[in-house]
Amino acid sequence: MRETSHFVHKYLRSSKRFPHIWCAGCGIGIFMQALIRVIDRLGYSKDAVVMVSGIGCSSRLPVYVDFNTLHATHGRALTFATGVKLANPDLKVITIMGDGDAVSIGGNHLIHAARRNVEIASFIVNNHVYGMTGGQSSPTTAYGTKTTSAPYGNLEAAFDISGLVEAAGAAFVGRTTVYHTPLMERLVEKSLTKKGFSMVEVLAQCVTYSGRWLGLNSPVEMMAWQRDNSVTVEKAQDLTPDELAGKIVIGVLADRERPSYEDEYAKLTAEKLKV
Amino acid sequence: MTRVDIYRGWCKRCGICIAFCPKHVLDADQGLFPTVTDPEQCSGCKLCEMRCPDFAIVVTKDEKGKARGKAKSGSATG
Ligand SMILES: Cc1ncc(C[n+]2csc(CCOP(=O)(O)OP(=O)(O)O)c2C)c(N)n1
Ligand code: SF4
Ligand code: SF4
Ligand code: SF4
Ligand SMILES: [Mg+2]
Questions:
Q1: pLDDT for A187-210, tens place per residue?
Q2: Which residues of B touch A9 (CB under 8 A)?
Q3: CA separation for the pair A200, A97 (Å, rounded)
């Protein structure tokens, strides 16, 4: 009998305990596999990749992988990543953030990284909740949802992360769910190979909290919900705002050419150093 | 034909692979672990492998052209 081994093993830290800490059926692991699969396909060397995260369940991802990794402070992944990229523009710099990490405490860094257009491939795992700290509302929790911090229902409107990052000027913006694995891989690849700042919003199930808040009781129900409530960007063009209400629009939302910050900086230094 | 290996040591019995296999190749055994029940139907699409949050499934094309779906009980350190 032939022995088989999962391709991800090549990228996992043998010092870490597996199975990983995420709850059974948590969407973060599905995204993690897609990310590693694309990195493997693109043939990046481990030494050329720097993965930076903040704090949260999603932000635990880099702990498990054998790249250069930085488990930074809550909300600050992009600030560390910006420093790394400017110090050595040859590195492939990736950030992994949660919705709370990227949009509450780190929201300001997010819009300015997009505006500045530093070449960072950023991934926001949006599970609509603070998973790690026990199911509090996040800026993407839907209005009316009952959570640990909003027992009578969330009184705030939710942020559209992709819309925000697109408006702030990112070179590439895409949205997917973890149910849509082939699309997720295509968006990850586009993001990793894009010049300038890119962001992929990955809708993923937090089975332990957001599932409970939504009345979805298993990872299977949550992924079926992702499947049944998503429409592609192409299809969305033919739908009225009423028909689109409550739908998740998935696909490439923005893809444009803008000079990256590192290129501008390199141009300036070359000019000033010329004598 | 393809082979579907399930590593029980890492499987958390979430049921995702079973529920979303387009060909209904997998089913839960008594302990709720996925097991290959209809290997002939497997198209090799790898969706179960890609959607497993715990890297507990490997789908391999079998060069000999035979279906050899089999649940393994070891851990997945490989
Ligand atoms: C400065 C600081 N404030 C607050 C916290 C507590 N904290 C840890 S994770 C987290 C939010 C996690 O939510 P999210 O970023 O959505 O990640 P998830 O766990 O859902 O993946 C908070 C508030 C912290 N670690 N540091
Ligand atoms: S608490 Fe939620 S986000 Fe965190 S590991 Fe569990 S399911 Fe995943
Ligand atoms: S998807 Fe993975 S963890 Fe979930 S039941 Fe299937 S093999 Fe087990
Ligand atoms: S490879 Fe595709 S058809 Fe075969 S078991 Fe997995 S999901 Fe089902
Ligand atoms: Mg979250």
A1: 999 999 999 999 999 999 999 998
A2: 55, 76-78
A3: 11
Which residues of chain A does B57 touch, with a Cβ-Cβ cutoff of 8 Å?
Answer: 6
Compute the distance between CA of residue A243 and CA of residue A246 in angstroms, rounded to an integer.
Answer: 8
- Window 28-47 of B: residues touching A by CB (8 A cutoff) are 47
List of domains in chain B:
2-63 (3.30.70.20)
pLDDT at B78 > cutoff 50: no
Q: Is B55 on the interface with A (CB under 8 A)?
A: yes
Segment A113-132, tens digit of pLDDT: 999 999 999 999 999 999 99
Band of the pLDDT at A4, cuts 50, 70, 90? confident
- Kindly list the residues from chain B whose CB atom is less than 8 angstroms away from the CB atom of residue A27: 53
Residues B51, A24: C-beta atoms closer than 8 Å: no
Residue A224 has pLDDT above 60, yes or no: yes
A16-25 pLDDT per residue, tens = 999 999 999 9
All domains of chain A in start order, with CATH: 7-272 (3.40.50.970)
Point out the ligand 3 atom lying closest to the alpha carbon of residue B26. 6
8 Å CB contact of B78 and A6: yes
User: To the nearest whole angstrom, how far is the Cα of A272 from the nearest Cα of chain B?
Assistant: 50
What per-residue confidence (pLDDT) applies to B76? 40
